[in-house]
Design goal:
single chain, 295 residues, alpha+beta, Arc Repressor Mutant, subunit A, 10-stranded mixed sheet, two-stranded antiparallel ribbon, 12 strands, 20% helix
Length: 295
């Protein structure tokens, strides 16, 4: 039996006369924060190379923000989901698609894109550095992996009539061989008796397009939080690795040194040892481990 609404219409009749153009609709973009970890150049072959956390940026080849650096991304097409668009962009920029991918947040501030109303459905991807190739897309002049630095510079707490607002100010630095980009981003937690919210605000920005400094800050916060609580960092590792290499990856993500004994207890259930050892490394061979896929 057909159900009628208050105007006496069935669903089929309602859809037949519905005009989507009566409501303004946003464009939707899928923007990608793509992280990898690389080795630094080490002159002393007897010393283990240190690790660097890097992320992919592209230099825009057209307006708006011509010549500025931006996250890889593009508009969601009518025949795909936002996640499918993210996977497509990832494959086009790096040549890989079978990687760790998670949705970060939907950024929808008014005026975030000068062209029109654009909402960004952002994603974070983690890639083993040995797997990718780099290729700038059609709307990009260049693409580079940037070394990431994200450090606390000040914090402030304000008491509200009910609850509080606490703000952490972070300095974001992104370095490549030729380019240095900087921004200051505030992360504010507002807590009230019945609610809690987290917001990001760009205080200053030199060289990044759109509100991408805010998206990058959100991604770094997510990556650090999940590195503390989950096995997410293992998605940045090759198939076989040493525990020292894994600890270095944790340290560059968290931006702090970890005690060796504590770290090894932390990851004991996350990895399994193999019968393989490092070779031709200029120092005593180390046992290689792999990710533990057991439940």
């Amino acid at each position: 039996m057909d159900t009628h609404d208050r105007d006496g219409l069935t669903e089929q009749e309602f859809l037949a006369q519905y005009r989507a153009g009566d409501y303004e609709r946003p464009s939707v973009a899928a923007d990608m924060v793509i992280f990898t970890v690389t080795n630094t150049e080490e002159d002393n072959y007897r010393k283990l190379p240190e690790k660097e956390l890097r992320m992919l940026l592209i230099r825009r080849g057209g307006h708006p923000y011509l010549g500025k650096w931006a996250l890889p991304g593009g508009f969601v097409r009518p025949n795909e989901t936002a996640e499918q668009a993210a996977v497509r962009e990832l494959r086009e920029e790096t040549g890989v698609d079978d990687v760790y991918l998670e949705q970060l947040h939907t950024f929808s501030d008014v005026g975030r894109d000068p062209r029109t109303w654009v909402m960004s459905c952002s994603y974070m991807a983690l890639i083993d550095s040995s797997r990718f190739r780099l290729k700038a897309g059609d709307d990009a002049e260049d693409a580079h992996w940037f070394k990431v630095s994200y450090r606390l510079v000040r914090e402030h707490k304000e008491l509200l009539e009910e609850g509080y607002a606490k703000t952490w100010s972070y300095e974001l630095k992104l370095h490549s061989e030729e380019v240095q980009l900087t921004a200051v981003v505030n992360r504010t937690v507002t807590a009230k008796p019945t609610s809690k919210s987290i917001g990001f605000e760009i205080v200053s920005n030199d060289g990044l397009a759109f509100d991408h400094a805010k998206i990058i800050a959100c991604a770094i916060e997510r990556l650090r939080g999940e590195t503390n609580d989950t096995d997410i960092a293992l998605h940045l590792m090759p198939r076989l690795f040493t525990l020292t290499e894994l600890q270095q990856v944790y340290e560059v993500i968290l931006d702090k040194e970890l005690l060796k004994a504590n770290f090894r207890r932390k990851v004991a259930d996350l990895v399994s040892e193999t019968d393989h050892y490092t070779e031709n490394a200029g120092h005593r061979p180390s046992r290689l481990f792999r990710r533990n896929w057991a439940e």
